[in-house]
Amino acid sequence: MYIQALQGKVEILGLKHTSTLKTVNNLGLLYKDQSKLAEVEEMYIQALQGREKALRPKHTSILIIVNNLGLLYAD
């Protein structure tokens, strides 16, 4: 479902839209639950880079993804 939602958001809103990036992060969370660690990292980094371009540097959305990456690397 996340992949379908992501495809639709990319098509309608574009990859850089914050709503699309939220779905990218959520897909990363799903991959984490499935232990697909390479995919998790890819999704988190994509979401982080996009949000860094779209939002101010210390925005909470960015810090949440940084935290998610930290937890991933700790695992």
UniProtKB/TrEMBL annotation:
This is TPR-like protein.
